[in-house]
Design brief:
The chain is built from eight helices and eleven strands. By secondary structure, it is an alpha/beta fold. It has a five-stranded parallel sheet, with helices on one face. Strands 5-6 form a two-stranded antiparallel ribbon. It starts with a strand and ends in an 8-residue tail after the last strand. Bound molecules: zinc ion (ZN) (2 copies).
Length: 275
């Protein structure tokens, strides 16, 4: 059974519900042994204290966020391991700015996310009605994903098929090649990816990355971890049974956990019976 969840949000980002403690309590109630708190990092690629108040916490909220997670880590020690994380945008040519922020705080791990392609959010539906060629969008998205892996800034690469969330279907026949090229770059960089169940909540048929990509990643020896990307306390551990089945099928035997930015692979004890 999967007993970890490395991706969670709360009210500070402006689009999630509840406070951090609500998510920790939900994790305990669901039998998790570890929960990673990873709210959206401030938007350092825009000026001002709080340029996108419904997307990410303000710059002056980061200190309080870190202090609160550290306090709760102590409070719940012995019941659940609380990890201090953060989900950061990957922005080309801003590696140094972000590295400085990550160094300033005692993060257990940093998640890197490609949230914008050609300056448009990956979850923006209007992209697809603007006459753009889908394959060009995928190529650009996966170029950035590969670059985020090569940057060495991140411990976890987030939702590596998020661009598909609201994309037109059927997908182009060349899409798997584009994805596999990015996975090869991720493997070469030694990076770890999450299997993120918000995919089921957004595009409904697959997690991020897709089940096919999880199999390919396993083949390439890319380490993986589990994440629900919860934005409500009741989404903690969301659909972990489905991911367990996919991981078992792919022959995955370990999952990644983090402390002090060190990756620790733990055995993944499958309880799923396959027929
Ligand atoms: Zn969010
Ligand atoms: Zn994200």
């Amino acid at each position: 059974m999967i007993t970890i969840d490395y991706h969670s949000h709360h009210y500070r980002c402006g689009h999630a519900q509840g406070n951090i403690e609500d998510y920790i309590k939900a994790g305990i109630n669901k039998g998790l042994t570890e929960i990673g708190i990873s709210d959206h990092a401030p938007i350092y690629w825009m000026d001002g204290n709080d340029p996108l108040p419904t997307i990410a916490m303000a710059k002056n909220e980061l200190d309080g966020y870190v202090e609160e997670v550290l306090r709760l880590k102590d409070k719940y020690a012995g019941q659940i391991a609380v990890r201090l994380g953060i989900e950061s945008d990957y922005i080309e040519d801003m590696d140094e700015t972000y590295a400085k922020v990550f160094e300033k705080y005692p993060f257990d791990y940093v998640i890197g996310s490609v949230h914008h392609v050609s300056k448009i959010n990956v979850f923006e539906r209007s992209r697809w009605t603007s006459g753009v060629k889908a394959l060009d969008v995928y190529r650009e998205y996966y170029r950035l994903v590969a670059k985020s892996a090569q940057s060495g800034l991140f411990d976890i690469l987030a939702h590596t098929s998020a661009i598909l969330a609201y994309a037109p279907q059927p997908f182009p026949a060349d899409l798997p090649d584009v994805q596999d090229e990015a996975l090869a770059a991720i493997a070469a960089a030694g990076a770890l990816i999450e299997v993120n169940t918000s995919g089921y909540r957004k595009m409904t048929i697959d997690p991020f990355p897709t089940a096919r990509m999880v199999e390919k990643a396993a083949e390439l020896g890319i380490p993986m971890t589990f994440s629900s990307d919860c934005h409500r306390p009741d989404e903690v551990g969301y659909a972990r049974d489905k991911i367990e089945a996919i991981l078992v099928r792919a022959g995955v035997t370990q999952l990644g956990t983090f402390a002090n930015r060190q990756r620790i692979m733990i055995p993944f004890a499958a309880t799923t019976v396959l027929c």
